[in-house]
Amino acid sequence: MPVSELRVGLVGAGLIAGVHAHAYRASPGVRVVAVADPVRAKAERLAERYGAVAVGTVEELLDLPVDVVDVCTPPLSHADVAVTALDAGRHVLCEKPLARTLGDARRIVDAAGRAAGLFMVGHVSRFEPDHSGAKALVDAGRIGEVRMVTHTTTCAMPTWSEDGWVADPVRSGGPLVDQAVHSFDFARWVIGSPAVRVHCLAADTPAGPATYTLSTVRYANGAIAHVEAGWGHPASRGFKLAAEVVGTDGRITWSYDRMMGGVLHPSSGPVEWFDVLGDRGFTAELRAFTDAVGRGGPSPVPARDGMESLRTASAALESARTGRTVDLTTWEGS
Amino acid sequence: MTEKVGIALLGAAHTTHAWAYARALAAAPATRVVGVHDQEREHARWICRDFDVPFYASAEELAASSDVDAVVVCTETVRHRATVELAAAHGRHVLCEKPLATTVADAEAMALACRTAGVQLHVAFVSRFLPLVARAREAVRSGRLGAVVGMVGGNRGRPPLPPAYPAWITTAAEAGGGAVIDHSVHVTDVMRHVTGLEVASVSAEAGSLLWRCGVDDTGVLLLRFDTGAVGSVDPSWSLPEGNPWDYDFYLRILGTEGSLDITDTAESLELVGNDASGLRRESFAADADAAMLDAFVASVLEGTMVDPCASGEDGVAALRVALAAYESAASGEAVALTTAPRPTGRGA
Question: Which of A326, B31, B228, B285 lies at a 20 to 30 A Cα distance from B116?
């Protein structure tokens, strides 16, 4: 066994843990060695596929020789797992949103600040070829200064979550915290200026209360973001993402409507679409994380960035609830 | 009927739209363009030349001409009121360029003047005449989407800067503002037209962020409708010089029983030449200006507004939203719209 091998313990064995486990295979010298999940059968199923050990709790996982703890639990437990792992000296990758509450997010930021290990938030959008490609074009000066970002993600109510936690606004925060947090993170990243105020309107759909949302965000440099996120669309429409980045010298746009590079029509059986994105985002994200661990830092997406994106999402929730604009320069949140 | 409907163009200050309306009217078999007036003769130059339309130095004289049945008003927005009131005083039906006015008070006065004079006031909400919008309206009104939950619409374009456009369009005092008042009214109107919902409150962000043209060129409006449905509008002049298309109109609607997405850029071909201009999307859409003017003329002939023409009240409603957006962008808070009581004739 090479000394440089990085041993990963997954905490949580749901949908995203499976995606991570698969994507780690593209990172050389990285091996998933343990999977923890209170639903033991799920942990065992995932562990078996990767030749890993299944355990029930994060404490059991930390008793094993794991270098990295990859937090793929529902967001309400991110802080407990991440802080425990950081305090145990491990490197930690934490799925987005950083946490369900800003209080939890602060605990993680504090723990990451005092920890020896590297901490990264899994804001995968930054690593998706479409989003990272747009950021590279912006950084190369191709559209001048970014002044407006429009980011829209709409789909049906996700059905993948254990015990339906995503559908529960208390546990997931709804589409603003679970989904639009990607948009808020990407917008601030590409605009390069802190968010200063948020206004959000939410509407109920048959999928649940406040499951369709429209937000505006203003940034310190004057730029504007326009974010649509919802779970109320018919399932047949699929997951739609469309983005526009408008700068003083140009405009970048893309859409999932144009991300199918091929289609296979068999004489019988289901049509197969060749998605040009596939799991390239997760592969690049995990590669960036393991490379950063190998180099000894810095974190590709520090805890503080995840907290800022969560703060915008939480402020949008607050705005939707109160009907008021939230001033992010003073808002503490909870 | 052998007699043609006589149309006067009162004002051609919105040069591109006035020219397009003149072209459509000149080509329409049932109409005759009696003349064009503008305070600046230069604004009318191409209309006179291209469509052989006589220029009138006096608006009064043109409005009073016995050949005139109806007028099309394309003055600077701030002068819409005086021009529409002149037309109404002469008993002429009016099609007025959007936005209806720069203030709600002016817009309401125009609607009142036309009602009092017994003439029709139409507003040039040309997007209503897009066939895709008609299909969307039919789908929503026949219940295909269930109850409307949310809408996202946009009408983006290039900045209307000199020399291609007259300077007043990017002057707040004459145009009432920039992109928000110029484009949001189209989208707000189509949202109302398609769904029948009314806007209850508006919050917005807007700014002069791209072109340093002195007025807002970028913005987003968030709308709360009277049913609780939500909406957003992107009216930005956010297209760079080399954009493959010049403007767009799109609307996405989510309902309790379905969703609908329309975009007018679908009606186009991609063209690339051997010069440096790059990719172009050349539209093959039917001429919506012509459809709008045909409907205006049909309304004049029938003596009542035909579907789907936009009325003065529609113009007031869309203007209220745009002006509330400016108020919200400045204050940072949502602005509630009180449904104004329909003005009644003074002393009546």
Answer: B31
